[in-house]
Write a structure and sequence with these properties.
7-stranded mixed β-sheet; 21 strands; alpha/beta; 2 domains; 12-stranded mixed β-sheet
Length: 442
Amino acid sequence: MASKSKLALLKARPLCIICAKPEEVGGIAFKLGIADEHISSTDIREIRDGHDFYLGTFKIVDEKGEKERYLEYYLTSPTRQGIQTFAIQACSLFHVIRPQFVIHAGVCAGYGKEGIRLKHVIFGDTAINYEEGKWVVENDHKLFKPSFRTAEVTVGGISAFAQRNEPNYKYGGYISGSAVRQDANELFELFRGRVNRDICALDMEASAFLMLCQYIQHYNIRCLGVIKGVSDLGDSKKAQDPATYTAALNATAEAVKEWAIFSLRNVEWRIDEDEEAISFAQGYYDNFVRLTLDAISSGQDVAVASGTDEMIPSDKVKGIKVIMPRNDDPREYGEPGHIAEIVRNHGLIGVKVGQGNLSRTLYYKYGYLIDFPRNLNKFVESDDRIHCTQSFQRALRRKSYFLQTQNREIPFATATSWEDFQKFAPLNLGPATTEAEAEAAS
C-alpha cells in the first residue's frame, strides 16, 4: 500500500501543539514519550518548510468517568525562533492543516517578585507586544514611543484550572518582544503598573500566537491558550542552567497534557475517518465476524483445533473479542509469528467455527472467541497506520453484533483494546483446556 498523504494524516488529528522553536519541540516530545513517532514536512508540497511533526495521543475520560476517548495530536514549531517567523509560519500551518484546537507551549521568563519560581508553569490567554511603536526625535534625542497592542482570546476555565493546581501552576498575562531580555523585572513593573496587573511572563511569541488565533476564529479553530514553563527570571543568569531549561520543558509537557485532557473532557471533536480502513472493517465484519457469530447463534458448536474431537457447546460461547494491536500499531501483527507468540504467552487455544468454505479459525479463552485482525497488515507501510487502525476499530463498533442489544447485558462482539485484553488474559496463565476450567476462570 502506498503511504497516505502526510498532510491527510495531520489533518486527521484535532489538536496542534505549537512551540516557538525546534529545541522546545524535541524536549516536550521526549517527555510525552512521542520522540520516535514523527514525520517531516519536507515532502509535503502544501507546507514545504522543514517542520517536524511529532505524533501522539491523549486518553480522555469524560467528567462522569463513563466515556473514554482518544485525542490524536501533533507537536510542531516554526523552523526558527522569532516573532515574525512564528507569525508567518504558524499562520501558514494553520491555514493548510486546519487543526480544531491549538495550544502554544514552550518556556518563558517569569516575574520573580510576584512569587513566580523556576519550573512554575504560566497559563495565559492575554499577551501584549511591547516593541510596536515609533521612534521620534525630541530635543536632539531619539526616543521610542511604544504603541501597546493587546491580544486576548477567551479560553474558558483556564484561570480556574491554573488556580486549582497551585502552587506550580499560575494564571497570568504575557508580554512579548523581538529580543531576549536580561532586564525583565523593569518591563514587568512598567506593564503591571500601567497596563495589566496580571502580567507575569515574558516571551517572544505569545502575542503573535493570540493575535493569530483572533484572526483564524472564522476557521473554527479553537484556542486553548498559552502554556509555558519558567526557565529563567529574565536576569543575568538567563540560559546559564541547561538542567533548569529541561525541567521547565518537562513541566510544560505535563501541564499541556493535563490541560488538554481536562479542557476537552466534555467536548466533541470531528474525526476524519480513513475511508479505506472503513471499507476493510466492512469486509472483515461481513466475511468473518458476522459469519462466525451467525454460526454460533444457529447452534453450531466450536471445534477445538487440537486433532481431537473435543467440542465447545455453542451455548457456552459468550461472544467474540476482536483484539486491537498494542498502541493501535498494526506492525504488532505483522508476521504470523507475532500472533503465535501472543497465543502462547496468554494461554489461548485454537478453535474452528463453521464447516467447509464457511469455516473460520479463531482462538478461545474463558468463554470467548478471540481474533487478532491481521488484515490490518494492509496499513503497515502507511504513515497513518495508527489512524487507520483506529478508524477500523470505530467502524467495527458501529456494526450490529458490536452494539448493545436488549437480549444481552454486554455486546455480543467487542473491539477490545490491547490493555483490556491484558487484563482479560494475563501473561503466563496456562491454556483453558476444558470448558469447566474456562467457566471456573470466568
